[in-house]
Each structure stands twice: as C-alpha cells, then as structure tokens.
Input
Amino acid sequence: MIGRIVQFALVQRLFILCIFLALIFFGYRAWQTLPVDAFPDISPTQVKVIMKADGMTAEEMEAQITQPIEVELLGIPHQTILRSTTKYAITSITLDFEEGTDIYWARQQVNARLAAVSSILPSIAEGGIAPMSTPLSEMFMFTIENPSLSLQERKSILDWEIRPALRTVAGVADVNVLGGYTRTFQFAPDIAKLNAFEFNIDQLSGALQQANVNGSVGRIKAGVDSLVIRTEGRATSIDTLGDIIVGNYQNEPIALRQLGTISLGSLTRYGGVTRDGKETTQALIVALKDSNTAEVVNNVMAKLAAIEKTLPEGTTLEVFYNRKTLIDTAVGTITSALGQAVIIVILVLGLFLGNVRASFVVALVIPVVVLLTFLAMKVTGLTANLMSLGGLVIAIGMLVDGAVVVVENTVSQLGKAQNLPRLHLIYRATRAVAVPVIAGTAIVIVVFVPLLTLTGLEGKLFSPVAMTIVYAMLASLLTALTLIPVVASYVLTNKDGTTPGYLTKLQALYRHSLGVLLAHSKLLVAGVLCLLLLSGVLFGHLGKTFMPVMDEGDIIVQLEKSPTISLASSLALDKQVELALLSEFPEIKHIVARTGSDELGLDPMGLNETDIFLQLSPPDTWRFKNKGELETAIRDALAHFPGMNIGFTQPIQMRVSEMLTGTTGTLAIKIFGSDFTQLSTTANEIADIVRNQDGAVDVTATLIEGGDFLSVIPKPGIALDYGMSTSSLSQYLKMQVSGLHVGDVIKGRVRTPIYFGDLNRGEALFTSPVQLKDLMILMPNNEMLPLSTLADIKRTQGPAIIEREKALRFSVVTSNVEGRDLVGFVDSVRNAVASTINLPAGYSVEYGGEFENQIRASKNLMTVIPIVIVIIILILFTIFGRWSLALLILANVPFALMGGVFGLFVTGEYLSVPASVGFIALLGVAVLNGVVMISYYEDLKGKAMPLYELVKSGAVARLRPILMTATTAMFGLLPLAFASGPGAEIQRPLAIVVIGGLITSTFITLYLLPIGYYYWERRKHA
Amino acid sequence: MNYTTFRYLLVLFSMVLACDVHASSSVSLDNLGKLSLTYTPINAVSAMEKPASTGIVKVLPGSPLRIISPMDPQKIEYLVAHGQNVKQNQRIAMLSGSEVHHFRDNLAAKTALLEITKSRFDKNRELASVNAISQDKWLNIAQQYYDAQLTWGHLNHFAEMFEPHSDEDMGYLLAPSKGIFMLPEQAPTDIETQATETQLGAIVNPNSIRLTTLVKESEKEFVEAMYTDSCSVEIEKIEKISHRFFVRVWSAPLPEGCALQLGAQVNVRVKLSVSAHSVPAASVFYLHGQASIFVRHDDTLKAVPITLIGNTDNDSAVFTAPNLANNDEVLTSSISAVQGILLGLGGIE
Output
C-alpha cells in the first residue's frame, strides 16, 4: 500500500505537483480567510437570564424573582451549573450546559421555562435572556467625547444613532451603553393642584396611559379605494404631552400641564462612566458567540468611521479597548515565532545536510505543510489563535523529520551511484524509510491525541494545539511520501550525498567519547541517575499553577467601596484615583472607569464597584522594564487610597475568571448556607485567614451585609381610614424617589419615556430619611398626610448582594496568589480554615477558581499519560517485535522529562498545563530519537559486526539524523521560549520543557541508549 | 462581691467599652494616604423649613362684610368681578325685576308709614305724659311707631347701598365699604341669613386675607412663618383645636407683592425654630445604621453620631448632637473611603 502510493507519486509527478499546487492555493486562501481571535472559544454553552425590577431590594429580588426562576430552570436537562447574583434592582442567573449542548436548544429551553414562570413574577419585573454572547465577547469599547454636548445628549447619540447602526453589523450581538443620562419627559405633579382639582396619582397615570395611544380601527371601503382608519392621541413632543386632557373638574377639561410641571428629566442611574476624571458615556460592543472577532471588529470600525462623520461637530469616538489590537499582537507574536522557527529550522537543516539542494527539498516541506494545516483548520472550523498557531510552532521542528529521513536516504542512495534509474533509486530510498517515517509520525500523533480528551478550560485551550499538531503531522507525512520524492527527483543530483567536514569531525569526536563512556559506563549511569534523582527533588519544589497569566497588554484596577455608597460619591472617589494615577504615571495615556451596572445588565456591578481601565502608552516609552513592574508601582500608588478593596486584572482574565467561578480571583472560597449574617461572618473570618497566608494578594470577602434600607411600614388603622393601600403608597413613593414610568413619547425611532416624579437628574430631591418622613402624601380621599403619620419608617440592614449556586445562598472569599504556587497556597488555606473555623450545621465550604481547574487538569493528565505510554509501547513493539527494545527506548523518557524539570527550574517557570503538554510532547520526541537509533542497530545486525563495533558505528551513523531531529525540534521552539509579546506566556513553559527535555534526551539517546543496547545485547548473547 | 468591687468593675468595663467604641469610630489622618480631604465648619441653625400640608389663601373667619338684601331680585347683573377690589359706593351690581320695584314701593310705603306713626307718636307723647290717654292706647301707638321704624330702618340700610334707576324695576347695588368683592356663592357663609333675606355678596378687608395651612401637632410650638414659592409670611394665629393629626395655623396679613390670590391653593413650607447645627448634606454617612459625620479632632477623624431633624435646603442637613461646637470641622470629601476604613475595607495585600 505504502509502496504503491510512493510509486504513484513518482509515476504521476506532474499530477502530484498540480495537486499540491492546488492544495497550496487553497491553503493560502484558508489562511487569508481563517477566523482570527486571541483565544479559542473557551466558554461553555452558557445562557444568561437578566431580570430587572426598579427599586427592589436584593432580598425582595431573590424572593420574588430569582427563586421562582431558579426553581423553574433547575429542571432543564444537560445543565451543569446554575448560579445567580442578585443585587438591588437586578438579578443575573447563569446556566452552564454540558459540553456540546446546542446553544440554540439551550436558549429555547430557558425561554420556554421563563415563559412558564412569567405569570408569577411581579409586574415591574422586566428582562429575559441576555444576548447570545460569551464572557469574552466584549471586544470593542469607546467613549463619546464632545465638551459642548451634555452627557444626556451624548447618551442619546449612542442610544439612537450609534447603537442601531452598529447592531446591523454582522456578528454584533448588542451594544451595551454605559454612563450618561437617559432623557425622559418628566411630569412633576403639583400636589396642591392635584388636591385642588381632586385628582390622585393613580387616576392621573391611568388617564394619561389611556389618552397617550394611537389606536388601530380598521379599514373602510371608499369608492373603489380603501382607507385605513386609526385614532391618534399619542403625544409626539413635550408640548403635545402637556396638552393631553387627563380629566375634568367641575365640567372643565383639565390638561396635564395644569396639574404640574413638564420638563426634560433623566432616568435614575444605576451606573456611571468617567474618563480621565470627567464623566462621560461609553459603548461596549458585544460580539455574537462563534463570530469572527477580528472581522467583526474591522466591520465595526468601518461602520464607526462612517457614523463619526454624521455626528455633531467636535464629536469624537475615543476607542480605549480594541480586541483586534490584542489579536494582532498575540497572533503577531506567534506568527513571528513561526517565521523565526521556519528560518532557524531551514538553517539547521542546511547546516546538517551540508548541501543546498537537499536543504531546499526538506525546507520546502515547511511552507507546504503549514498551508495544508491551515486548509485543514479551515475545513474543520478551527480558528487561528494563540493556541492553534502555537501548536503549529511546536510542530515545525517535528514536521520536517519525515522529509529529513526521506531526503537523507535518497541522497545516500543516489550517492552510491548504482546503475539504476534515478526514479527507481528514489522510490527504493523512500520505500525503505516509509515505515519508520509513518511510525515516527504515528508516535507524535499518538502523543498529542490524548490532549483532545482534556475537559474544561484546559481542554478548550489545548484541543486546538493538539488538533493543529495532528493536522501538521499528517500533512508532513503526506508530503514526505509524495511531494518530497517528486521534488527530489527534479532537484537532487547524484553528487549530493557528501557529509560536511565539520560533521565528520563531530562524528569522530562522538565516536571517541562514546568509546570512553562505554568503558566507564557505570560512572555515566551513576551520574545520570543522580541527575534523575535531583530532577525528582527539584520537581517537588517547582511552583505549580493552572495556567500562566497571559499579558493582555491592559490593566484593569477593580475598586470595591463601602456597600452603601451613592453613585455620586462613588464617582467622586473614582475621579480622585484616576487623577492621581494620571499625574503619577505618564505610562497611562487615559483612564476609563465604569461604576455600577451596565444598561443590558450583562455585568450587574453595584454602585460601590468600579472597573478602572488603564489605557497604557507603548511599553518602549515606559520607565519600567515590564508590565509587572508598572503594576507593582500602581499597586504602591493605590495603597495611598485606603477604605477601598483594590484588585488587579485584565479584560479577558477578568471575564474568564467570572465565567469559571462566577467570581473573579484565582482562588474562590465559597461558603454555602442560608443566614446572611452567618455567611458574612464566616466569609470575613476566612478572608482574615487567607490574608495571613504567604502569597495572598487582593483578598476580598463579598460584602453580603451592608445594604441599608428604610422600611416604610404603613400604619394599618390610618392607612385604612384614608383608603391608602401599601401598593398605592409604594407607587406614590416610587414616583417621588425614582419616578413612575407611565408611557412613552415616540418620535421617529426615538422613544422617550414619560415619568411622573420630581427628580433632579434622576435623583430624588430629598437627601435624608428625615425629609422622607416629612414627605406629604396625597391620600386617595384627597387629604394630605406626612409619611411619618401614615407609616412607621425604620432603618434596617440587609444583604447588598445575594450569590446563589444550585439554588443555595453562598458568600465568597476571593484571592489572587503572587510568588507562590497555587496548589500549595490552597492546601495551606484549607488546613488553616479546617483548624480554625467551626461551621454551623447546614453550612459548608467549597474551594474553586483556577485551583479547581488545576486539580481537574492534573487528574485528566494523570489518566491520559499512562494510556499514551501503553500506546507508544504497542507501536514500538509493532516496529521491533520485541518488548525488550520497546522498554529500552521507553527508558529514555524519564531522562527526557528530567531535562524538562531542569528547564523549568532554571527559568523559574511554574509547572502548569502548558508545561504538562510540553512533557507529553517530550514523550514523542524522546521515543522518536530512540527509534532512530535502535532501528539502525537492528538493521546493522545482519552485517555480522562485533557488538562493540556495531554499537559504535551505528551510533556514529545515526548522529546526524538524531541531531537533526533534536535540533530542529529544539531550535524550532527557541523563538517561543524567547518570545515576549502577549500570548508568549502560555507557550513559553511548553517550549522550555521541550527544549530542556530534548537536551537531556539527546544526550541520553547518544550515550546511554547505545550503552544500554550494548549491555542488553551482550547479556542476551552471553 | 462587695459593692466597691462591683463599682470598680463597672467603671473598668465602661472604659474598655468606650475605648473599643473610640477605636472603631476614629481614623487617624496619617492613615488616609492621598485621599482628598476637605473640611467645613459646623454652623449653628436657629430655624429650618419643612413641608406642610397644602396652604390655602382664605379670609379670616367672621371678617367679611356681608351684603344682605331684604329682597330677592329676579336678576342680578354683577358689574365687578369676583375678588375685585372695590371702592365705597362703587356700583357693584345692577338689580332688576319686579322684586326691585316691590322693594322700592315697600321702602316708600314703609317711609310713609313711619312718618304717620311718628307723627301720631309725637302727638300722643304729651297726652300720655299727662295721662290724657290710657296706658294701653299709648303702648299700642308706641309699638306701632317702633315697629315701623325698625322695618323702615331695615329697608333703609339696604337702600343706602341702593341707587335707584330711572326704571322702577331696576337699581344699582353700591359697595358698602372699600375692599374685595366676593360673590355670594363664594362668600363665607358661616353666619346664616334669614329666610326673607338674600346675600348678594360680601366685601372683604384685604387685611383679613390670610394664608392658612395645617401643621403637625408636634411642630405647632415651633412654627414661625410660612413660605410659598412667591413669599414668606409670619404666623399670627395658631388654632387650639386639632384637625386629627394637625393644627391649623393662620398667617399675618399677606404683604404687598405676595402674589397670592384669595382662594389660591398652594404648596407651603413652614419655618420652624430649632436649636441645631447644619453641615453639607453630602457629609452625612451611616455607620451601623446610625447617621454620623466625621469631625476632625487634631489628627483624628471621629465618627460622631447625629440625630437628623431636617434640611435647611437640599444641600444642608440639620441635626442635633451633644458635645458638638459650632466651627468644629466636619469632613466633606472622601467620606465613603473613610467610612470604608471603619467597615474594614481597604488596603492592597
């Protein structure tokens, strides 16, 4: 079969060339059109439900909205987790589904359940399923700047000009608008006039709602035509709104304007945005799940460029986050590493092969395989990202191996100048090495295929790596057995089979050293075993982490302030921090800070929470060596702003953390229970324990308590006497505090809500509980009473935030870890908590965050690696037919891993998932080298040489291919090991492990393996 | 445990408690880093405003001069508007109809009758003094005279406000005094008219037009003045009868330019006399549910509990608190951050 393929290729050379040209063309097209992103899509199938209810406390939201919805959603099949966060006026319920669950099916299920429960929700509850995005969908953010426009005007532009336009861009799920003021038509009832005209608020709002409508009537036949009839009552402007007749008094019609003041107002705000210490408005573009982020960003930018020309003069859109920048930088880092790897590998090949023609033929395989891999990625729907392209870089050094073996043998066969046709010689040469080439490729593929079994975040991250390597190796095999012989037949001559002089000298040196070590083999074995032991010791001291933090190039500072803080005070503190940072750090170009909730509710932060986005100048202008140093300096500067919890993160890192645990932080300790006070107390106790651990940074305990409420409890006797119900009183107070939505004025596409209430920029006019007590209430019988007469007003405390998971309340303590391995950190926290905290019955503690993923990843890898080893043994047995040789080759593996451990230790890198993947890759390369050596020994056996000579000659003969295999793999990874751009952090541990492992593995293959073979064979024959 | 030991322990416990409270409610300025700290002195406040029930511009009860007619004219054509200022003897209405004619005839008849009865009375007075006529007869003559005089006087009082028209069925009603004219249906009706009389209107003295509103029982002692959007006016009368939860207060006469018309219903705020302090409203925060302010003492900020009693306007909070002196400095910026410190927030680990 294999022979027929090679034969067909050499017989149909032109056809093969045409086929490959076509494949190259399509591969190039695929590269041009591949969806590009920084990360693979790491989100699970996730559906988010966001519900809002104006003015409701967290406890009420939980009781009336969150709980009923959760109960209904709990029954949906294939869900893995159901969690919710309930705050003042908003609840966010998140459902994660099993891997592979269709997102549209999941959304449909959630929708159906929501519809079923909607009838028991309070009438003021509004919301539903959030846009179909992922936590990483926030891909483009900008503020709208124009000093001559008010915040209300800016928001209006965002709401009614920019948002509708951007939503037409393919791949945009929604545009989240933050900050500014939403314009309303505000009717401030004059209580004296209402009293005089004998109106009450319920009557008035009912009358307005009935009057402010356009009714549809129907159609009449008018001659041969038909005329559509409608009724028109809807106001179209603030003037016509005032003219609406809302009733009559003593037979006189009363217009709305006669009963109060109509003015432009603002909705009550749940958040704000500041830029460089001044308030502004911001838009955040959310990409649709599975969209091509780079393409969407490009289209958004094109659309914005078109819109910007139509905006009022002096208006600019200041982009402060563009995912495309990260994509370009990360992909640039990796493509640069790829380019460097290609050049280095070609140089290494040239160095070892010693002739230009042979080097050209082998080097040809790299671009061809790369393009074929892109084609395979395109066909199978893989995106070009940090991980998939990283896989290609890892594969570069290995994908030339097959071609090297084929070309080297071809050169050798041609060099012998046998009296046979050239094509036949090439066929024989290719045919002869086909099995080892296939076996080698199979070993590499086998090594990486198990990575596809990884689950969770690590699975989503490393599947593309494994897939790309598998594609590249298959493409390299195909190329080595078809294209390479064809090209070799055109390019190689019979004189290409000479060995370069330096290599001859190297071979002589190797022959001598091998002889010496064969004579002192016990010393060598002892030394190597000592090193192995040392590596074992060092392994125990290696830091462990789940995933290296990718430097996204951006810094987000998270502030958590007093839970009862007002929006104005919160923004004032933000401004202080912003101005201080701007003045102290020229590295910060601009600062955009977002406080409170966004409009869509995708990230329902409280008024006390702020994400400060630092827009940094290019790193080459910094006073600091790297971002780490800059971050430390900012930490120091922020230490001068006490009274706030301060944390550091990055845009994607923040969302990934939230996606994994529902909270940010490397370690998330969840305390499950029912009583808020107990949950809060335990959380604070645990937070104190965590703070005392070495390496703990940014430790925060969720502030469950701290929500301050004024409970207005009607006095039943008086309320009944005056005919005032709790619901009516609540409506009345709502009008005074946050406004009462009674309708809309629609003009073109602009819909302006009509609110009853006398508010100042969305805020109640009174500023203290005493004023609330003195508030005059217009009773249904038209009398007036101060609120304190009608009701008891008590100050009470309750939860500001309620977190739930699987329908249970929990509090959470989060922490990041610095300068210490995560697993060790968690172990010490676990022990300290277990020995210090006495949990009451019904309470439990769970440890989550990245730590959880590391445990899962370790378990998966510990299952996968033995399976890989068994498969490798089976392949080796298939090749050699002897278990002993298979085990001898496999004995090389621990020494290869030893190099990886040394590499990590020397460079200070932690043992992480990428490093573990590096160890898996090492398995393949180490075994491959052994196969090259042992298979040659087995071939030489037929030449009846003395064993000692066979071992030495064989080893010397395989020096070049082993060095080539090792050095191409090693040097191919060097650019990754030294890369410094965003994204390099993830691939670096992998590259270091492989490079370190290859150094020791190559040494072992060149010295210990021949010695082992020698003693094994000698004992066998003895 | 003897009493001395118990007392010693009690004092010790109080000291520990006091130290603990102090420790948990004070922050050293040295710990506030680069937070922007601004202060403002505490001000003394002697009065503050509060919203009241709706105010109404009314006439003090009993003060209007009612125009009572002994007839009920078929037609009354008012020549002045309701609420218009009128001068004395200004024509305010044209009365017409047979009743006017009857009134005029009646007046003429009663005048003639009065003259007859007066003549007879005068003639018989001397006779009666010398007992020339019987006592019964004299008593009858005198009774007739006084009845005629009373009847005439009653008609004549109205006739003084009546200017006859050339047409017998018509006549003008004249203003009995200067003041504000009020239509009969709008005029105060706290004194009932007799069945034979008709109220044609009333004249109100401008000084008796007042602003009145209801204030809470608990606040009546402290009410000093009333405010509307257009004017402020002192309180003159506080009624001694409660209207459920309220007491009615009456203003002094409305000053010139007050722009409050009789009958107007307006939103009213009342001025209460207090002995309190004021600080910017934005300097008040809540610590464990208690309204507090941060008062600066040397190098320390101390959270001082206060009792809020109102606002002088939307930007100032009025409160009482023991042991606070005017001009003590109160923190007006970065309050939430300092509050955060007391709540255990802050710092970068």
Notes: Chain A has a mean pLDDT of 85.
